[in-house]
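Structure (tokenized):
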């Protein structure tokens, strides 16, 4: 089971954009940590079960194969202040989201349904169905 936090586990193009995001946040005085990159299907199943068949709050609507994390083109982050994760600091997430977008990433804080303030992805418009059939970004 793989639920990685390593930037190197992302597709090389996404890894580069992720590093750019971290550097630009740093230039703005914002410390961020990457909390999730690549997830294999088994890990995705475990996360999907949370709040459904396992205790906890629902944190994803994506079943195995339905998350861009499964294809190494998405990552989750959290801003940090004085060593503490700022999960409820919407203003700080907004700043980070704008920085992510300036790096060419899609920031899920703009999604109309199931906003994910901590999620960024780079898909070049490729659908999950196409990724599941082996297509990838170039």
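Design, position by position:
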């Amino acid at each position: 089971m793989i639920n990685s936090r390593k930037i190197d586990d992302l597709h090389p193009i996404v890894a580069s954009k992720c590093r750019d995001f971290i550097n630009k946040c740093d230039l703005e005085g914002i410390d961020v940590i990457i909390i999730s990159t690549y997830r294999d299907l088994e890990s995705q199943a475990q996360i999907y079960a949370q709040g459904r068949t396992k205790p906890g709050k629902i944190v994803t609507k994506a079943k195995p194969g339905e998350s861009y994390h499964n294809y190494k083109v998405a990552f989750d982050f959290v801003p940090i202040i004085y060593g503490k994760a700022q999960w409820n600091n919407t203003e700080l997430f907004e700043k980070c989201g704008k920085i992510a977008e300036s790096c060419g990433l899609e920031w899920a804080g703009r999604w109309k349904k199931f906003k994910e303030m901590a999620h960024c992805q780079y898909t070049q418009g490729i659908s999950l169905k196409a990724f599941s059939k082996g297509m990838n970004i170039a």
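Reviewer-requested clarification: The mean pLDDT is 97. The chain has one domain: 7-132.
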